[in-house]
Write a structure and sequence with these properties.
Layout (H helix, E strand, L loop, with lengths): L5 E4 L2 H14 L8 H11 L13 H11 L6 H19 L2 H34 L9 E5 L6 E5 L4 E5 L7 H15 L6 H21 L6 E2 L2 E2 L6 H16 L4 H12 L1
Parallel strand pairs: 1-2, 2-4
Antiparallel strand pairs: 3-4, 5-6
Helix pairs in contact: 6-7, 7-8
């Protein structure tokens, strides 16, 4: 239990790509990033490789790959794009814009790692005693810039992508636990919406309240907690969850019990 189960890293390739993707939806964010966008667009707009980072015309890129396949060999066109892609990344990494992003992301990593370290024993104990689950020996957390608002599990790689502002106390811990539960329940559930609702009751709500020693379900500092599309289901199964907490076993038995009763 003394060895940390979560290891925190920055993947600069994923970080850069996430910034480009984020700005496609919210160009008002990271306004200084426009300079590097304009530079790369002017230099590489006719290169399919650019759109593997900046997916404005990704369909066009795939089309060019297909058109270059000869003798059933796809590796040559992919290698050509891969070599160009690495060149583009290198230009991004030496830019002042990316250096600013990496510094802010590194500062965020330090804060998240410290917070997880303070809470890890409590989270692991909760997973084991209340949820009947054991965390694998190694989970990698790929830290992204907090303004990207990314939280995603990659179960087949035992990885979590995380970059989100701290909206309330122990926010990162709670949602790292949430993503961990997605990894631990992958391919073991019978109903995805149901297991997701249980995960939100277990992590977003009960664990949050236990860690912070205050709070109520579904609300924190006027913030709505959890996915709105799951709220109706969560309130429907809440009596089963509250009953389960009095005599916990594991969440897969809880899922089966609810499924038989309600579905």
């Amino acid at each position: 239990m003394s060895m940390k189960r979560l290891e925190f890293f920055i993947n600069k390739y994923e970080l850069a790509a996430q910034i480009f993707r984020h700005r496609m939806a919210k160009p008002q964010d990271f306004p200084f990033w426009r300079k590097i966008e304009e530079k790369l667009w002017a230099k590489y707009k006719n290169e399919p490789a650019l759109y593997f980072i900046y997916p404005k015309y990704l369909d066009w890129s795939f089309q060019l790959i297909r058109l270059e396949i000869k003798n059933n060999k796809i590796i040559p066109p992919l290698k050509k794009i891969g070599d160009k892609l690495l060149k583009i990344y290198k230009e991004i990494f030496v830019s002042a814009e990316f250096k600013k992003i990496i510094k802010e992301t590194d500062d965020f990593l330090i804060k998240v790692e410290r917070q997880w370290g303070e809470n890890e024993l409590a989270v692991l104990g909760y997973f084991k005693q209340i949820l009947g689950l054991k965390i694998p020996s190694k989970i990698t957390v790929v830290i992204l810039h907090p303004r990207l608002c990314v939280g995603k599990a990659v179960p087949n790689k035992n990885k979590i992508l995380w970059g989100h502002p701290e909206e309330w106390k122990n926010y990162s811990t709670v949602y790292l636990a949430h993503e961990l539960l997605h990894i631990l329940t992958e391919n073991k559930y019978k109903n995805y919406d149901l297991i997701h609702a249980i995960i939100e009751l277990a992590a977003d709500n009960e664990l949050r309240i236990r860690l912070n020693k205050y709070g109520r379900y579904f609300k924190e500092n006027n913030h709505s907690v959890g996915h709105k599309n799951l709220r109706k289901l969560e309130k429907k199964i809440l009596p089963f969850w509250k009953s389960y907490l009095k005599k916990p076993t594991n969440i897969f038995l809880l899922e089966s019990r609810i499924k038989k009763a309600l579905f």
